[in-house]
Amino acid sequence: MSYLEFDKSELVNLEYSLNREILSTNRAGGYFSTTIILCNTRKYHGLMVLPLDQYDGERHVLLSSVDETVIQHKKEFNLGIHRFPGIYEPRGHKYIVDFEYEPTPKITYRVGGVVLEKELLFVHNEEQLMIRYTLKDAHSPTKLWLKPFLAFRNAHNITKSNLFINKRYKEIPNGVKYRLYSGFPYLHLQLNKANEYVPTPDWFYNFEYMKEVTRGYDAHEDLFVPGFFEVSIKKGESVIFSASTSEQITSSLTRKFNAEILRRPKKDSFENCLRNSAHQFIIKKGKKTEIIAGYPWFGRWGRDTFIALPGLTLSTNEPKLCKDVLDTMSSELKNGLFPNMGNAKSSAFNSVDAPLWYFWAIQMYAKHTGDSKGVWTLYGKKMKSILAAYRDGLPYNIKMHDNGLVWAGEKGVALTWMDAIVHGKPVTPRIGYAVEINALWYNAIMFTLELARENRDSRFVKEWEPIAQTVAQSFREVFWYEKKEYLADYVDEEGQNIFVRPNQIFAASLPYSPITDDMKRGVLEVVEKELFTLKGLRTLSPLNQHYQGRYEGDQATRDSAYHQGTAWPWLLGHFMEAYYLIHGKAANALAKKILESFEEDMNQHGICSISEIYDGDPPQRPRGAISQAWSVAEILRIKRLYEMNT
Predict the structure, then answer these.
(1) Distance between CA atoms of 94 and 96, rounded to whole angstroms?
(2) Are residues 151 and 277 in the same domain?
(3) pLDDT per residue over 78-107, tens digit each?
């Protein structure tokens, strides 16, 4: 019995199956993702989605899907399923009798006396998808038709039929290769045995992606079908289909598939599911090691990288991986700031908190390794340069004031993690002294002072020790809301914004805190009472008139709710860290409930992972990206906290 169980009787139920999505990455930025019955419901779904260097590393869908038709007694049974406006056609899901996720996604079809298994495998560190078809049972000669649906377009866009497509192909061993548009790589389509390729170039029109319909995006696409492969298959035989950006040695496909299967990480427990998911975010390309913020549509984000890094690497006891990411990101520091999205060549440096989370990530690494001297040697100079940049002033009015606190923001720009913008205006501008920015600022100064003392940098200590004392005193004076005993979310020229938000939790969770234990208790009490759910902390109290408890509708409606009540799993990591600091081992009961809550979701939404967000209102449905780096990371950290205190 496998850990990830699916109700076999419900697989033909579209409401059940289409809300369960699978994801597999090649650990180099590429992925395949679809639903468990292989019906694409998003424009981001596809069997081969790859980052293309020639297009600034943006992901492109090359192969959308592959339909199989079983031929027996001259009768055709199409196993595919696609959504068109008002109809699903064909309806091959009615033949599905089983779905398994481990060691790799496998679907079993039964058509009369034919039992066919289909296994999908994305090769690690290569740009190759393999599909293995195994005929488990048949009582007469059987053939397969394999029909690829090609897209060759940016994952964020939709393709339409056009006259610019290149329908020509080149024959290669046991297959063909296509390049629909110049600038793209060739897609090599091959089988591991002799077959007949029948070119029937044609467009298929108006595929409908239901998730995009509900999200208010263009949801109708045309796909190009170049032809189909016809191959005979005997009972007990396996036929392998390969799609790759490089030509394959077809006689080696079986051996390669078997070797890759053995490399698949186990997904037989909650922890192993989280570990597998954690590794999918970590991308190695050349000398760079980066973290993808989430699948299927996020790229690399500076802020998300540093927040997720300790959980994804140190919680799995992989400090070298942590260092590799820190080194990659350190090389892109520019005048005190890190790229917010993308890389240093093509990114806006508009994240006020990313550099401050950099300190925290290094802090966690130093704690894990115990190598303060090595950390200071590697990162000390950059840490000091960031502090100096914040003190002296940065773009977007980012600057330390005379009271030691960091002011940040300008009209029309969202600099904190609450960065949703609707119709050109930030939903939560938070211009001024933001509570988490200044909690992180204090922690960064204190951690740097700690390393400086240990490594005898007396000049830095003399310069920054008085500043640290000023920051702590000012923080308490400026942010503490005495009447209700919690911290203001931000403070501007008009005074304290006292909306109950989760950003105050960091002042209670970070290793160095500017507030007293009594203040921490006050923060914990209000956060637990008004924001806490087992799926995440709400971004705004339900008692607030601006609260929005459901994340749904078109983009503007969703973005308006993004930080106005939506619950975020990643915030639970710092909430529980603060909880343990105040309550000790008594926090275990709550940590256990949180972990059990997410374990219940392992076979829903994004299978074997944790979603980006949840509705603030019950029943708290998973929303957003199906697999989010900092969600997985912080649940891993909670698991470690629980184990350390058990």
Answers:
(1) 6
(2) no
(3) 999 999 999 999 999 999 999 999 999 999
Of the three residues 246, 263, 280, the one that is the final residue of a domain is 263
Alpha helices in 193-236 (DSSP H): 210-215
- Whether residue 1 is contained in a domain is answered as no
Report which of 67, 238, 230 is spatially closest to residue 144, judged by C-alpha positions: 230
DSSP 21-79: EEEEE-SSS-EEEEETT----STT-EEEEEEEGGGTTEEEEEEEEEEEEEEETTEEEE-
pTM: 0.96
Taking the alpha carbons at both ends of the chain, their separation in whole angstroms is: 28
Same domain for 494 and 436, yes or no, is yes
The Cα angle at residue 341 between residues 340 and 344, in degrees rounded to 5: 80
Contact between 467 and 445 under an 8 Å Cβ cutoff? The reply is yes
* Domain end (from 201, 228, 263): 263
Range of the domain at 528: 270-644
Please indicate, yes or no, whether residues 287 and 214 belong to a single structural domain of this protein. no
Instruction: Return the SS3 of 444.
Output: helix
Residues 569 and 461 in one domain: yes
Asked if 23 and 292 count as a contact pair (C-beta separation under 8 A), the reply is no
pLDDT of 340: 85
Best CA proximity match to 120, nearest among 110, 134, 106, 135: 106
Contacts of residue 343, Cβ cutoff 8 Å, sequence gap at least 6:
57, 300, 332
Q: Residue 258's CB: how many other CB atoms inside 10 A?
A: 11
Nearest to 527 by CA among 547, 507, 501, 545: 501
**Does 2 map to a domain?**
no
CATH code for the domain in which residue 21 is found? 2.70.98
Give backbone dihedrals phi and psi of 282, rounded to 5 degrees, phi first. -90, 120
The number of angstroms, rounded, from the C-alpha of 53 to the middle of its chain's C-alpha atoms is 21
Alpha helices in 569-628 (DSSP H): 571-583, 588-599
Could you say which residues of the chain have pLDDT below 70?
1, 342-347
70 and 33 in one domain? yes
Tally of structural domains, the chain: 2
* DSSP at 347: -
3-state secondary structure labels for all residues of 286-332: CCEEEEECEECCCCEEHHHHHHHHHHHHHCCCCHHHHHHHHHHHHCC
CATH code for the domain in which residue 504 is found: 1.50.10.10
Count of Cβ atoms closer than 10 Å to residue 529 Cβ: 12
Judgement on whether residues 71 and 93 belong to the same structural domain of the protein: yes
Q: Write down the pLDDT at residue 285.
A: 87
